[in-house]
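Page 47, continued from p. 46.
Same chain as before, 175 aa.
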Amino acid sequence: MSASHRIDLERFVPFRLNRLAAEVSRALARVYGERFGIDIPEWRIIATLGDRGRTRAQDIALSTRMHKSMVSRAVARLMELGWVARTAGAKDRREAPLALTAAGQEVYEQLVPIVLDYQDRLLGSLTESERRTLERLLDKLERQLDLPCRPARPEQRARDGAAALPEPSRSGQAP
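Result:
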């Protein structure tokens, strides 16, 4: 194999992003796993519901990039713990939005400062300008990959000077 057909993994962006994501997830999982006894999929569901409120399982799967069976198993466990409940209104159980219960909201509120502290420590070596640049670059890569995302909150748009992105369509396809 010629040198022009080799990958320098230490410079290959997909490899680096995967390593970073895996390490961040592992480190965070250790923190919330020890304190709350939850795993990564359960954390992602709690975080999504805490941030967005009532959300369908299929929308959680889409935004977190988890397989629907993984979401289903995690939702079942969180329901057993009494932290998540299906809300009324949908005829099909799969269409019923999920929501945090009061106990689940309490867990979420305890988790938020822990994970924000971890994020601050992770980004601690970056200047404020570098943090904003990283945020803009991540936004750009997510748009490049047509990852569903919500519009930035108004205060974020004003601070970053960025335009909001449209909501993803119900089919999960980017507009």
